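Hi support team,

I'm opening this ticket because the web form for multi-chain structure prediction keeps timing out on my end. I have pasted the exact lines I submitted so you can reproduce it. The total is 604 residues across two entries, so I didn't expect it to be a heavy job. Is there a limit I'm missing, or should I split the entries? Thanks in advance, R.K.
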Amino acid sequence: MKSAPLPEWARWLMELGRWLATDRQPGKVARAAISVPTRGYAALFAGMGVVSGSYRSGVLNESVRLRMLSRLNTGDPVRYCKGDEDLKVSYGKFGKIEKEPLFDLGDCVYLAEGNGKEYGREVRQFHYIEPVGEEEKFSMDRPVCHSPDFVKAAMGIDPISQGFFSRLECVIIGNKTALAEELELELQAERVSGKVQDVLRVHEHRPKDGYRSRTISFQADVRSELVGKPFGGVVMDGSRSFLRWRGMARRHPWLAIIDRTNPTAGAARDAILSGLASSLEDAYPPVGDPPSGVEAIFYWDRKR
Amino acid sequence: MSLSHTDSFYQLSERVAFMVEDVYWADLKKIDRAFGALFRRHRESEIWNDFIRRARWVLWDLTDTPLPTDHPRLGLAKAGEELQQLSETLRHQVDPEDYALAWQVAIAFQHLAVESLDLLGERCRDLLRESDIQRCRLVVRRPRYREDIEKRFREEGCPVQVIVEHQVRTLDIMERLVMTGPVKLYGQYVFNAPRAEKMHAVRYEWLSTRDVSVNDAARLFPPLEAEAIRRFRVSQPRAGDYLAPTIDWQGIRWQAEDRAGIEKERTGGDLEVDARLHLLGGGYGVYLNVERTVYNIELG
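Hello R.K., no limit was hit. The queue was backed up. Here is the completed structure from your submission:
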C-alpha cells in the first residue's frame, strides 16, 4: 500500500493477506486466525492483500509450475511478470527444455512474444513464468478497469494486465449480501479514489468484467470452488464460514476472521486452538503486531 | 456501517476501561453461605430437591437483579413462606443441623422481603449518574425483570435504558455500560467486543472468588491457553512423548466389531435401527443409534 487514508487494522489485514498469498514453504500451508470486534470490511481488506500478493508471486507452487512448463509446446501462451507488468507471451521452446526437468536448465527459459516474434532474451527469474491455465482467460472485449490509477496507486500492480486476465486468486466465504455492500466502499490512494471492487474484482459482483476473486455464501456448497484449484488464499469471514468450510479449504492457505460478537465465536475459538494443537509450528508473518482490537494466531499446518 | 464507524470499534478496544465494582452486603452473604453449605451436601439428594431448587432461584434473582428486596416482582415474601413450609416437611427426615440451615435461609428471605434494600441498584445508579445518561446503558442478563428495573431506575431519577445481554451485540458505542452480577454469567462478547468506553461489572463481593477475571473475559484467544496448547503440540516429537497416553483407534474399532458380533448372537439376527455416523479421531467412523442423545462409548 503506497498511500491511503486507511485505518491501521485495514493496512495490517492487507499485509496479512499478502503474506498468506506469497509465503510458500514445502510441505506446509499457512494458517491465520484473527478475532475482531466487528466483522465489517475485514475480509475484503484481507482479500485485497491476497489478490495483490498473488499477482506478484504467481500462485502455482513450484513443482506444479515446472511440470506444466515442461509439457508446453512452442507457441503456447504463458504469463510472464516483468516488474509490475503482466505480459502474455508465447512460449519459445529450445533445445534443452524438451523432456528435461526445468530446474536443470540453469534457470534459463527463452520466451517469444505473443505474435510469434522472438523475444530472444535470457530470463533468469523463470519462476515468474506460468502457463496460462484453463481458468485464466484472456479477453479484449470486456471492461478492463474502472479506475486504473487507483489500482496502480493502491496496490502497485499493473491495472490493465490485471483486468485483461481472469484467474481466481482469492475466495471469500461469508455473508454475500454484506460483502456485496462493502465492495462498493470508496477508498483513496495517492489522491485517486476507487472502489474495493476495483482491486478485488469479485466475479459475482460484476460478472462481465475480468475477475480475480469470488465471494461465496457460507450457506452454499463451496466444495467445487475449493477442491483441486490452486490459488492464493481462502478468507473465511465469520465463525460460521470457518466452522463449516475449514475442512474443504485445508489445501489452501486460509485466514479465519472471527467476529467476537458472534454467538459461535467460542466454538470457532475452540476449533482454532485445536488446529494449533495439531499444527507443525508457529508462523511469524512479517506484518508486525496485531493492531488494537485484533487478536491473532498464526501457524503452519502440514500440507495434505 | 461506514469504514470510519467500523474503525471506531477498533479504536475503542484501545481506550476501553473495565472496572469491577464489589458491593458488600453482610446479610445476603450469610444466606449465601448457609445455602451454599446445604447445596454442597445435598444437591444430589431427592428429598432436598424442591428446597434447593426454590432457594436457588431466589438467590439467582437477588444476585443480579437491581431491584429492592420488597419489590413485588421478586416475590421474596412468598418464596420465604414456601421455603419455610418445605423446611418444615424436612424437619424429621434430615440432620438437625441441616434443618437449622434451611430454616435460617427461609426466615432470612422473609426478613429481606419486609425491608427495602437495593444495594446493587444504588451502586449502579451512582455509576450511571456520573455520565450523560443518554449515552449509558444498564445491562441485565435476563429479560424477565427488564421493564421493572427500567421503571424503578426512572422513579429514582436515573432514566437509563435497560437492555438485555444479547442486545449488546448490536449496540452502538456508548460512554458507559453497567452490568449487574458475576462476570462469568455474561457472554464473553460483552467484554471482548466492548461497546462502551467504561465498562462496569457490579457484583456482590463474596462472588469475586468464584468469578472469572475481566482480563480473561476480554480475550477470545487467551494467551495462556494458546501457550499451553503449543507446549503440547502433538506433531512435534519431544523427549518423554512415550509417556503420554495414546488412543488405539484400531483397537477400539475391533472391540466395537466384537461387541456387535456378540450382540448379534444374543438377539439372534440383525437389529435394524436408524443410526448416525460419527467420526472418531483416528479417521474411523462409528454408527450410533440416532435415538440416543447421550453417547457413552466404553473404551474397555
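A quick check on our side: The mean pLDDT of chain A is 75. Let us know if the file doesn't open in your viewer.
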